[in-house]
Amino acid sequence: MAPMQEHSEVVCEVCRAQLGKIARARQLTDLELSILNQPKREININIPLRMDDGSVRIFPSYRVQYNDSRGPFKGGIRFHPNVKRDEVKELAFLMALKCSLTGIPFGGGKGGVKVDPKQLSERELQRLSRAYIREYADFIGPFKDIPAPDVNTNPKIIGWMLDEYEKIKGVKAPAVITGKPLALGGSEGRLYSTSLGGAIVLREYLKTIGKNGKDVTVAIQGFGNVGSHLAKILHDWGFKIVAVSDSHGGVYNPKGIDTKKILDEAWSGKKLHQAVSHGKAITNEELLELDVEVLVPAAVENVINSINMKKIRARVILEMANGPLTVEADEHLEKNGTMVLPDILANSGGVVVSYFEWVQNLSGHYWSEEEVNAKLEHYMVEAFRETEAERKTEGDSYRRAAYVLAVKRILQAEEDRGNVVRKNGAGK
Ligand code: NAD
After folding, report:
1. Ligand 1 centre and the CA of 411: distance in Å?
2. Residue-wise pLDDT tens digits, 54-112
3. Based on C-alpha coordinates, what's the Rg of the chain?
4. Which tens digit of pLDDT belongs to each residue from 250-277?
5. Which ligand 1 atom sits closest to the C-alpha of 299?
6. Among 236, 216, 194, CA closest to 346
7. Could you state, in order of their start, the residue ranges of all structural domains in the chain?
């Protein structure tokens, strides 16, 4: 793992830096910038929780509703001991950008509880999940703010949350939250939608340089939900997965890893650094510095930073984690000609299928896995092509092009609502 002390508090300093650049280049007004720079609403509630031993503990919690000019706020709820208001705010901003870039009719939001869920019993976890919804019930709703799972929250927790909301409101309202179990109105395909979306973006990019995936070498850092499903999809499409790692380290084989076998092992609980029959054991730092065509950070933020940026040899970086590059690393790699496919594009497949889940809940008509994947394909290809067109027009990086598009659409919605008046086509 690359050293992460640098900027580890800031989830997305790249987001703020990009916004600053766009504001200067597009002459955004102070009002436009302040709409983009700060959330519409931040809620902070200290939740009292009765523990199994009869004591009561207080857990700080947050919901940040960033922007809703394009539709209801949308974003996950994370349970983590390091959850902080500023982090939730940054993640809410990222969600607003992703929804805008992919053209789905949502704004951005995010929630969190400062708790280590591993320290709670199952009953305490359920009580906390329900308590969160009780506290925020008046702030969320199918046309207001739609939460979803995030770090350490999963379909089971989302099922409890839905149940609590419906009890409070006295109606069935599956569209209030996404990432539900299938039996409660979840969508087919959601489990691997983020990975499939990223794979489509990579495939579309490679087409622009006259390549298909055949034998293109890939190294993936992070082998959780996103990294492992991405490995499976890319392998099925003919890519050559040469290295994978989890938080303990990984394995490298220049001839290609037996992806099906390592997935079976990982999904049955084996740590990757123990899977040495697949190749040479490597550290997370070593994985990032491998000479591969495509590097995929799919674990945590800021892993490529000033300390290791000069050692990165990959030609393409597919950002599946949120904010895996620091600003300095991003600028260095851009100058160096490394093609970075940015997080707000690469990992937006999950929120697109969350949107499909909401649509299915509202219509009461449910789609097959094939239908969901075909619709996801359409949205991701469209988002890539629009970003590519913007990039070509302006001679920009993919990141800047993606930000320009996302910001432009949010400001258009603000303008159409009469909230801002743009002079001289600023922001267009
Ligand atoms: P996960 O918890 O399922 O998996 C995370 C993986 O990263 C694990 O293999 C873990 O061992 C590894 N890891 C953790 N800390 C690490 C470290 N310090 N160094 C190297 N590896 C480490 O999470 P996930 O759902 O796969 O999400 C991965 C990333 O993708 C996160 O940044 C997340 O915010 C982002 N993301 C996920 C989704 C989604 O739909 N799950 C959507 C958008 C973005």
Report:
1. 31
2. 999 999 999 999 999 999 999 999 999 999 999 999 999 999 999 999 999 999 999 99
3. 21
4. 999 999 999 999 999 999 988 887 777 8
5. 7
6. 194
7. 38-176
Q: Is 84 a catalytic residue?
A: no
DSSP state of 11: S
Residue with CA closest to ligand 1 atom 38: 194
Closest CA to 109 of 141, 80, 81, 134: 141
Residue 414 alpha carbon to ligand 1 centre in Å: 33
Per CATH, the architecture of 38-176 is what?
3-Layer(aba) Sandwich (3.40)
The per-residue pLDDT for range 172-185, each reduced to its tens digit, is 999 999 999 999 99
Distance 199 CA to ligand 1 centre (A): 16
Pocket of ligand 1 (CB under 6 A): 1, 194, 221-227, 246-247, 284, 298-300, 320-322, 347, 350
Whether the Cβ atoms of residue 338 and residue 315 lie closer than 8 Å to each other: yes
Which residue among 74, 89, 98, 110 is the active-site one? 110
Flag residues of the chain having pLDDT under 50: 1-9, 425-428
